[in-house]
Design brief:
Distance between the termini: 64 Å
Oligomer: single chain
CATH topology of one domain: Methylamine Dehydrogenase, Chain H
Mean pLDDT: 83
InterPro entries: NPHP3-like_N, P-loop_NTPase, WD40/YVTN_repeat-like_dom_sf, WD40_PAC1, WD40_repeat_CS, WD40_repeat_dom_sf, WD40_rpt
Strand content: 25-35%
CATH superfamily of one domain: YVTN repeat-like/Quinoprotein amine dehydrogenase
Pfam family, one: NPHP3_N
Structural class: alpha+beta
Keywords: Repeat, WD repeat
Number of helices: 25
CATH class of one domain: Mainly Beta
Low-confidence stretches: 665-686, 745-751, 1148-1152
Largest sheet: 5 strands, parallel
Helix content: 25-40%
Protein name: WD40 repeat-like protein
């Protein structure tokens, strides 16, 4: 019985876990973003399907294609506008769904927001498939992760569709992906979408695509393997079949009209139907528009007669224009002239806006945007039911029924209506550019008006560090209504369409000066911060005067965004905090919006005066960046790292597009082909080279070499061949087109490839690839050669070596032309595209730019905190990318002056910081540096530099009266400095007792205790710095730390023998011994009453009873705390990182609660648990100390930053 109960309980637990898992997956499914109205069965897409007995043969052929196992997995249906492609697509989707196909569909529609581009294509399809197919539900939902929306479409496709479905392909049945109106998608996305669908390993689903026969689509399919797709043009279908279907369509809708209106007799006549068929020709939209118009006409019979009385045009497209003209003529009311003018004015304002919106709006935001009533919108649009898609509810967007009506209204010669009541036949014509001018003005008014306008902290969130993900959708909709969202997202798009120049103090300049940061905040909340960069980029060409203030502001905003894209995307209010306080002093954005900085930041950090040459810092790798390379168009950058990833970056926004993971990436070379967008990566995996498409990240080919690992790869200049070098000391040449070994190396001199190689034996060789014999050997380096590169014209060769030199050679003769010096351990070199400049990166963390005519350095770029392993020029030669051991990629503007040494900082990373007890000064010391820098805490400025006489400094300590500063040096000596005179008072450690290992000042600053190598304890009078007392510790190993009691009568010493001994200073007798079994104490502190003792070791802090030696409390901390003072009750320990609570939470009373404090945690300055200020990479500390609201940071670049916060 017990076993049965146990099994039953286990089953219940399993079921509970299964239910929780399903709930979690359903929550993930709900969180997947999708494009509203894109699915075939959505309410936005609920137009009619093909009537019975129409398109029968065509649909049967397509359904048969979907059901069969033919290799042609793609069906492309093409046709001009109005031929019924979307109706066919909806019908196909409906029929296949009824046959239990799983359907993923996306109906593109230009000007309808997310349906006008491919951003949400993959996620919308994934969400549909997960809802339809139970077998695919779990794998699809599990694959979705936050942040994938920022990745490339190819990455999304691979992770959200292909991989999950491949796992369950035996159970998911038949899948069809249906893409309608691909031509309505943004051109930049069309190529990537087609490449996704035409990649090699499909077999999981069939893809049906419709579009107009636009050039970009024809071109992409023209480059696709003809065995995987079939295409059909609707104009190839016989006229008789098309006219038969149009007749059925017209007769069906005419019967509906006669039935609903009670029209008797033979209406319409056969002749009238035949005439409509003739005029429609092959355009279903003609028949559809006429029928929609007649359904709502007051007198359908009379309206039909008027349409048929129109002169017969030369083409069906012109005939459709005539129908539109008739509809607009009938639209005119019977009122007086003033009413007629008002009607036309409202038509122009409302319909004109609908025509040019980049995303359709429902009636309320449309009316709010235009500043008119909803009743005016409704009364203006209702008579246009035949040409507009007017929803029955107030939440759905208002749209044009067919694109041809928009084309008619904006074409000057098309929209020509001769009506006696019109002042001009072109009164309905829409001047598209003028409409954008008006709508731009409306957007600006919406953003700057009195209600629901832009303001700081628009969503009233509680903290400046609150993540964007913590702001719920309801809050966003309440505070940022749809019309404001639209205005923020698209005002720059409308401005671009106006073609107007931007000048100082115009409405755009005034808007930016008042609301730039408000706009950035809203765009961050809407998760569109990268769009801000694109918007500013759109505006720059509109400025003719490059010396104007608006030009300065736009360029500065571009730099501001590039430097803050990461934090602006994740924490909206940081645009007023981190982004402003770390901007350069002379930044236009900082200057204009300084008053927006939060008041709790009382003292701002010291920053440079101007933007440095570092345009962007790309963070995403977790290991050394071995290689960087630009795409040929300069729009993308690839980087490869020791962390096993290759990342593809968008260079406009600095955001990662795709991450290729799980590679054993240990090679040093990666590159983009010169003639295409194809990237390669060589890595140590059994001699395999992988070629990927740099647009989609798609794996194109795997080149199998021998069993030796590939170390380096490079493209030929024409991108047709690939050279690989391996650990077997061989070089191979591969034909990329055939993916085969290519020993012939081309048939003519121009196409022949002459590889160059470098190796650890100090030699460089050029080779005849066909015979694999060396042509020239270069032997002038004195050490390993780490990098070699040809000039663009292949006449020169540059090499970099571990002998700290760069050498320029004549590639033909082998003559050494120049030797460049100035680096330590050069790892990478690259020619500029014009061959005039050379970039080099070295292990000294510096990137240098050289003038090859003179051999002299032009510029030096500093900023990396680790050695440089790769450098690459952008194709236009204006930018330079570098990859480093610090895991970051920096993109440099080579037109900028050299980035100077860090502002008054050290030349190496900061190892020690100490705030004087009086909080007036802070001391900093750097790695292997003999300089002690003293900073003013009230200004953050450097006061003075003290020069130590010893070799390196390993610790610093102030006396409690801030008078004395003691330094322990790496050679175990001690220097004591008088901080009132900035002079050296005493140097200790050279007597018979040996070097000094530990020091401590007494609480009254009268004594300095030192512990020497031989474990001799000395007490020094700080007035004379002569030893007054001396005794020898009985501990058996080095004394690591020392501390006075508050009354100065006792001394505690911690030793490497894992003991702490408490001594009587006067008698030199041992009072207590404490065994530290966990390890060697690094610091100790005695409580005010002498009853408690605190010790730190390996991240643990222990509290001991000093009278008995018994342990009282141990707590783990994540930081290396240096105890300074125990509270009277032993509840808190004050350290250089703030106040640490040492009583378990459950044992604390109200008086025991640790006060909130300033600290640094995970890239943030925090106050307790509240995030205040995000720290950019250049300001993230390797050392930091805090005292109250005073925070001092020491960075790896040597920068010292002082900030003060109001608590």
């Amino acid at each position: 019985m017990g076993a049965q109960m146990f099994q039953a309980e286990m089953r219940r637990n399993d079921e509970d876990r299964r239910i929780m898992t399903l709930r979690h997956l359903h929550d993930k499914l709900d969180s997947i973003p999708f494009a509203n109205g894109a699915a075939f069965d959505s309410r936005d897409n609920q137009h009619s399907i093909c009537l019975e007995n129409t398109r029968v043969g065509l649909l049967a052929d397509i359904v048969a294609w979907a059901q069969c196992d033919t290799e042609k997995e793609i069906f492309w249906l093409k046709g001009v506008a109005g031929t019924g492609k979307s109706t066919i697509t909806r019908t196909l989707a409906t029929q296949l769904h009824a046959q239990e196909f799983s359907i993923g569909s996306f109906f593109f529609s230009r000007g309808e927001g997310d349906r006008g581009n491919g951003d949400l294509l993959v996620m919308s399809v994934a969400k549909q498939l997960a809802r339809q197919n139970p077998d695919a539900f779990e794998s699809l939902c599990s694959a979705y992760e936050q942040g994938i929306t920022d990745k490339s479409l190819s990455f999304q496709w691979e992770e959200l569709i292909y991989k999950p479905l491949s796992q369950v392909k035996e159970r998911i049945g038949r899948l069809v992906l249906i893409i309608d109106a691909l031509d309505d998608c943004m051109e930049s996305d069309i190529t990537e979408i087609i490449k996704i669908f035409t990649r090699g390993e499909r077999q999981l689903f069939r893809v049906f695509i419709t579009s107009r026969p636009e050039t970009i689509i024809r071109s992409n399919f023209g480059q696709t393997d003809k065995t995987i797709f079939c295409d059909l043009a609707l104009d190839q279908i016989p006229d008789a079949l098309v006219k038969h279907d149009i007749r059925i369509y017209i007769e069906h809708h005419m019967r509906e009209i006669t039935d609903s209106r009670g029209l008797g007799g033979q209406w319409p006549s056969d002749n009238q139907i035949s005439e409509l068929m003739r005029r429609a020709d092959r355009l279903f939209i003609y028949a559809a528009t006429v029928c929609r118009y007649l359904k709502g006409a007051f007198n359908p019979k009379g309206s039909l007669e008027r349409i048929l009385d129109i002169n017969v045009p030369d083409s069906s497209e012109k005939g459709l224009d005539k129908v539109y003209s008739q509809i607009l003529e009938n639209y005119l009311s019977c009122g007086n002239e003033e009413e007629l003018e008002e009607q036309i004015d409202l038509f122009q304002r409302i319909v004109g806006t609908i025509l040019i919106l980049f995303e359709p709006l429902s009636i309320h935001p449309l009316a709010a945007l235009l500043g008119i009533s909803e009743d005016q919108v409704d009364s203006t649009l209702r008579p246009l039911y035949s040409v507009l898609d007017l929803p029955n509810d107030s939440e759905s967007p208002i749209k044009i029924f067919h694109q041809s009506f928009r084309d008619f209204l904006i074409h000057p010669s098309g929209c020509h209506i001769a009506h006696t009541r019109l002042r001009s036949p072109t009164q309905f014509w829409m001047d598209e550019q003028a409409k954008h001018v008006v709508l731009l003005s409306k957007c600006l008014q919406t953003m700057t008006g009195q209600q629901n306008a832009l303001r700081q902290n628009i969503c009233d969130i509680s903290s400046d560090g609150m993540p964007r993900t913590d702001i719920d959708d309801k809050t966003i909709q309440v505070h940022i209504p749809t019309q404001l969202q639209y205005s923020c997202r698209y005002w720059a798009h409308h401005l671009e369409q106006t073609k107007r120049p931007l000048v100082d103090n115009d409405e755009i300049h005034m808007f930016l000066k008042a609301h730039l940061l408000h706009w950035l905040e809203v765009m961050s909340i809407l998760e569109l911060i990268s769009e801000c960069i694109r918007s500013i980029t759109r505006l720059l060409p509109a400025v003719n005067d490059k010396e104007s203030r608006i030009s300065e502001l736009l360029h500065d905003t571009q730099r501001f965004l590039l430097g803050n894209c990461e934090i602006a995307s994740s924490a909206p209010l940081q645009v007023y905090a981190s982004s402003l306080i770390f901007a350069p002093m002379f930044s236009a954005v900082r200057r204009i919006f300084r008053h927006k900085i939060p008041q709790y930041i009382e003292q701002l950090p010291g920053v440079e005066e101007n933007w440095s040459a570092s345009l962007q810092i790309l963070e995403g790798h977790t290991g050394k960046v071995n290689s960087v390379a630009f795409s040929p168009d300069g729009n993308r950058l690839s980087s490869a790292s020791d962390d096993g990833t290759v990342i593809l970056w968008d260079m406009t926004t600095g955001t990662p597009l795709q991450t290729i993971q799980n590679y054993e990436v240990k090679g040093d070379d990666e590159g983009f082909g010169a003639g295409n967008m194809r990237a390669n990566r060589g890595f140590l995996t059994g001699g395999v080279i992988k070629l990927r498409d740099a647009v989609t990240g798609e794996l194109l080919h795997e080149i199998e070499g021998d069993n030796y690992a590939v170390r380096s790869v490079a493209f030929s200049p024409d991108s047709r061949r690939l050279m690989s070098g391996g650990f077997d000391k061989t070089i191979n040449l591969w034909d990329i087109i055939t993916v085969s070994f290519s020993p012939d190396n081309g048939q003519d001199e121009e196409s022949r490839v002459r590889p160059a190689s470098c190796s650890s034996d100090s030699t460089i060789k050029t080779w005849d690839a066909a015979t694999k014999t060396p042509l020239k050997t270069f032997t002038d380096h004195n050490g390993r050669v780490s990098s070699v590169s040809f000039s663009p014209d292949c006449r020169q060769l540059v090499s970099a070596g571990w002998d700290n030199t760069i050498r320029l050679w004549d590639a033909g003769t082998g003559e050494l032309l120049k030797t460049l010096s100035g680096h330590n351990m050069v790892r990478s070199v690259a020619f500029s595209p014009d061959g005039r400049l050379l970039a080099s990166g070295a292990l000294d963390c510096i990137v240098m730019l050289w003038d090859l005519r003179t051999g002299l350095p032009l510029k030096t770029f500093r900023g990396h905190n680790g050695g440089i392993y790769s450098v690459a020029f952008s194709p236009d030669g204006k930018q330079l990318a570098s990859g480093s051991m610090d895991h970051a990629i920096r993109v440099w503007d080579i037109a900028k002056v050299s980035s100077a040494k860090t502002r008054d900082g050290h030349t190496n990373y900061v190892t020690h910081l100490a705030i004087a007890p009086d909080m007036r000064k802070v001391v900093s010391v750097a790695y292997y540096d003999t300089e002690i820098r003293i900073w003013d805490t009230t200004t953050g400025n450097l006061l003075t530099v003290l020069q130590s006489h010893r070799y390196g400094i390993r610790s610093v300590s102030f006396s409690l009266d801030s008078h004395w500063l003691a330094l322990c040096t790496l050679d175990n000596a001690v220097e004591v400095w008088d901080m009132t005179q900035n002079s050296l008072a005493k140097e200790m450690g050279n007597d018979d007792s040996g070097p000094v290992d530990a020091i401590a000042f007494s609480h009254n600053s009268q004594w300095l205790a030192s512990a020497s190598k031989d474990r001799t304890i000395k007490l020094w009078d700080t007035a004379t710095y002569t030893p007054q007392k001396q005794f020898k510790s009985g501990q058996t190993d080095t004394i690591t730390c020392i501390a006075f009691s508050h009354d100065g009568q006792q001394l505690a010493t911690g030793s490497a023998d894992k003991t702490i001994i408490l001594w009587d200073i006067n008698t030199h007798e041992q009072i207590q011994e404490i065994q530290c079994d966990e390890g060697c104490p690094s610091s100790i502190s005695l409580g005010p009453d002498g009853k408690l003792l605190a010790s730190s070791m390996y991240g643990d802090t222990s509290i001991w009873d000093a009278t008995t030696g018994a342990p009282l409390q141990t707590c783990s901390v994540h930081d290396s705390y240096t105890p300074l003072k125990l509270s009277t009750d032993g509840a808190f320990l004050e350290s250089s990182h703030g106040i640490l609570s040492i009583i378990p939470t459950g044992d604390r009373g109200e008086s025991d609660q640790a006060p909130r404090q300033i600290a640094v945690k995970d890239k943030w300055v925090v106050y307790g648990q509240e995030r205040l200020v995000w720290l950019p990479l250049d300001y993230r500390p390797c050392q930091w100390v805090v005292h109250g609201g005073l925070l001092c940071l020491g960075t790896r670049s040597g920068r010292v930053v002082v900030m003060r916060f109001a608590l």
